């Protein structure tokens, strides 16, 4: 059995709905297993500033339904330096924290992997990001909620697009990941989807839009991921306007950070609970530098370095192909 006595848990990088459900599961599982639990505020920032709070089963009451993260989060540049990580480790040691659960995305796991390697502290990651861009899991915590938020917005945009016979360019989050855009494109019945992983030329897009007009479509929605190579929805709208003049009545909507907030869906709460429970149990049987994931309906562990390796991540291209067919 393991000698772990005190487990630190933190959230880092962009917040995602369901992070609180994961914190709750980690804290309660740890306490159930007889461990002391410490919340590290603002991720790596808090590690360097000794911003620690002791947590009990009651300190995670009434948070399962809340968006955001009660432990707060930050993107911390100083932790990327060896000096920053040394300070963080010394602070963890002083507090008696001898294992970590890191909740976040690829940046969070890159930091966790380095800290664990350099100072031999066990760490298990839980994927919490709306981007769904990690290998080793079919779903990250927050992705389902963000998709539902986006589709609610697109349905509303469709009402006004149809009433005015307009062409809407809707920008969704995803600097490096087209997962939300692809999902939104299919569920929202969009005319086209522009993704960071694919080059879609403006001429191809225009061809598609004109084809729609030929098929008697009077309004259209195009979904654009923020990381699309054409430079986001405003740029795409500008280029289309330059080529087509006033033949389309064009509007742009940027959904922005509203996609990151809100109460997590039931799916995200259950996923977060399963992963939090699994993460603590993994630590206690001696696992380290792994991420919990959901494959099919099984909770599995994947090495952190594989989880964050972007070349391992595959966008579901067949869905993109399907969405072309369904918009004829
Ligand atoms: O990684 C999650 C995410 O929401 C991305 O989709 C987006 O590109 C980025 O974070 C935005 O980051 P910030 O909130 O720091 O602007």
UniProtKB/TrEMBL annotation:
<keyword id="KW-0547">Nucleotide-binding</keyword>
<comment type="subunit">
    <text>Homotetramer.</text>
</comment>
<feature type="binding site" description="in other chain">
    <location>
        <begin position="173"/>
        <end position="175"/>
    </location>
    <ligand>
        <name>substrate</name>
    </ligand>
</feature>
<dbReference type="GO" id="GO:0048029">
    <property type="term" value="F:monosaccharide binding"/>
</dbReference>
<feature type="binding site">
    <location>
        <position position="166"/>
    </location>
    <ligand>
        <name>substrate</name>
    </ligand>
</feature>
<dbReference type="GO" id="GO:0003872">
    <property type="term" value="F:6-phosphofructokinase activity"/>
</dbReference>
<feature type="binding site" description="in other chain">
    <location>
        <position position="158"/>
    </location>
    <ligand>
        <name>ADP</name>
    </ligand>
</feature>
<feature type="binding site" description="in other chain">
    <location>
        <begin position="189"/>
        <end position="191"/>
    </location>
    <ligand>
        <name>ADP</name>
    </ligand>
</feature>
<dbReference type="GO" id="GO:0005524">
    <property type="term" value="F:ATP binding"/>
</dbReference>
<keyword id="KW-0324">Glycolysis</keyword>
<feature type="binding site">
    <location>
        <begin position="75"/>
        <end position="76"/>
    </location>
    <ligand>
        <name>ATP</name>
    </ligand>
</feature>
<feature type="binding site">
    <location>
        <begin position="105"/>
        <end position="108"/>
    </location>
    <ligand>
        <name>ATP</name>
    </ligand>
</feature>
<comment type="function">
    <text>Catalyzes the phosphorylation of D-fructose 6-phosphate to fructose 1,6-bisphosphate by ATP, the first committing step of glycolysis.</text>
</comment>
<dbReference type="InterPro" id="IPR000023">
    <property type="entry name" value="Phosphofructokinase_dom"/>
</dbReference>
<dbReference type="GO" id="GO:0005945">
    <property type="term" value="C:6-phosphofructokinase complex"/>
</dbReference>
<dbReference type="InterPro" id="IPR035966">
    <property type="entry name" value="PKF_sf"/>
</dbReference>
<keyword id="KW-0963">Cytoplasm</keyword>
<dbReference type="InterPro" id="IPR012828">
    <property type="entry name" value="PFKA_ATP_prok"/>
</dbReference>
<dbReference type="GO" id="GO:0016208">
    <property type="term" value="F:AMP binding"/>
</dbReference>
<dbReference type="InterPro" id="IPR015912">
    <property type="entry name" value="Phosphofructokinase_CS"/>
</dbReference>
<protein>
    <recommendedName>
        <fullName>ATP-dependent 6-phosphofructokinase</fullName>
        <ecNumber>2.7.1.11</ecNumber>
    </recommendedName>
</protein>
<feature type="domain" description="Phosphofructokinase">
    <location>
        <begin position="6"/>
        <end position="283"/>
    </location>
</feature>
<feature type="binding site">
    <location>
        <position position="14"/>
    </location>
    <ligand>
        <name>ATP</name>
    </ligand>
</feature>
<feature type="binding site" description="in other chain">
    <location>
        <begin position="129"/>
        <end position="131"/>
    </location>
    <ligand>
        <name>substrate</name>
    </ligand>
</feature>
<dbReference type="GO" id="GO:0030388">
    <property type="term" value="P:fructose 1,6-bisphosphate metabolic process"/>
</dbReference>
<dbReference type="GO" id="GO:0061621">
    <property type="term" value="P:canonical glycolysis"/>
</dbReference>
<dbReference type="GO" id="GO:0070095">
    <property type="term" value="F:fructose-6-phosphate binding"/>
</dbReference>
<dbReference type="InterPro" id="IPR022953">
    <property type="entry name" value="ATP_PFK"/>
</dbReference>
<dbReference type="InterPro" id="IPR012003">
    <property type="entry name" value="ATP_PFK_prok-type"/>
</dbReference>
<dbReference type="Pfam" id="PF00365">
    <property type="entry name" value="PFK"/>
</dbReference>
<feature type="binding site">
    <location>
        <begin position="24"/>
        <end position="28"/>
    </location>
    <ligand>
        <name>ADP</name>
    </ligand>
</feature>
<dbReference type="GO" id="GO:0046872">
    <property type="term" value="F:metal ion binding"/>
</dbReference>
<feature type="binding site" description="in other chain">
    <location>
        <begin position="217"/>
        <end position="219"/>
    </location>
    <ligand>
        <name>ADP</name>
    </ligand>
</feature>
<keyword id="KW-0067">ATP-binding</keyword>
<keyword id="KW-0460">Magnesium</keyword>
<keyword id="KW-0479">Metal-binding</keyword>
<keyword id="KW-0418">Kinase</keyword>
<comment type="pathway">
    <text>Carbohydrate degradation; glycolysis; D-glyceraldehyde 3-phosphate and glycerone phosphate from D-glucose: step 3/4.</text>
</comment>
<feature type="binding site">
    <location>
        <position position="251"/>
    </location>
    <ligand>
        <name>substrate</name>
    </ligand>
</feature>
<dbReference type="GO" id="GO:0042802">
    <property type="term" value="F:identical protein binding"/>
</dbReference>
<feature type="active site" description="Proton acceptor">
    <location>
        <position position="131"/>
    </location>
</feature>
<keyword id="KW-0021">Allosteric enzyme</keyword>
């Amino acid at each position: 059995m393991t000698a772990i006595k005190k487990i630190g848990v933190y959230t880092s990088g962009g917040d995602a709905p369901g992070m609180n459900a994961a914190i709750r599961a980690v804290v309660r599982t740890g306490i159930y297993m007889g461990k002391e639990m410490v919340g590290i505020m603002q991720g790596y920032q808090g590690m360097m500033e000794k911003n620690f709070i002791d947590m009990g089963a009651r300190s995670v009451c009434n948070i399962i339904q809340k968006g955001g993260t009660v432990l707060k989060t930050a993107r911390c540049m100083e932790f990327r330096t060896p000096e920053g990580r040394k300070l963080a480790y010394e602070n963890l040691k002083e507090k008696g924290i001898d294992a970590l659960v890191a909740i976040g995305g690829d940046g969070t796991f890159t930091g966790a992997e380095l800290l664990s390697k350099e100072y031999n502290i066990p760490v298990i990651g839980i994927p919490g990001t709306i981007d769904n861009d990690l290998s080793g899991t079919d779903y990250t915590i927050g992705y389902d909620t963000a998709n539902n938020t986006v589709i609610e917005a697109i349905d509303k945009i469709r009402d006004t697009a149809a009433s005015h016979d307009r062409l809407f360019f809707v920008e969704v989050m995803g600097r490096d990941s087209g997962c939300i855009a692809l999902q939104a494109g299919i569920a929202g019945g969009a005319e086209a989807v522009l993704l960071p992983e694919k080059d879609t030329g403006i001429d191809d897009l225009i061809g598609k839009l004109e084809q729609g007009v030929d098929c008697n479509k009077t309004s259209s929605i195009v979904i654009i991921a923020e990381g699309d190579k054409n430079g986001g929805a405003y740029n795409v709208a500008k280029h289309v306007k330059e080529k087509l003049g006033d033949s389309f009545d064009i509007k742009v909507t940027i959904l922005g950070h509203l996609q990151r907030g809100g109460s997590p869906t039931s799916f995200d709460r259950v996923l977060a609970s399963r992963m939090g429970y699994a993460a603590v149990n993994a630590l206690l049987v001696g696992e380290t530098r792994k991420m919990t994931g959901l494959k099919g309906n099984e909770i599995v562990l994947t090495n952190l370095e594989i989880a964050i390796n972007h070349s391992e991540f595959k966008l579901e291209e067949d869905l993109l192909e399907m969405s072309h067919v369904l918009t004829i």
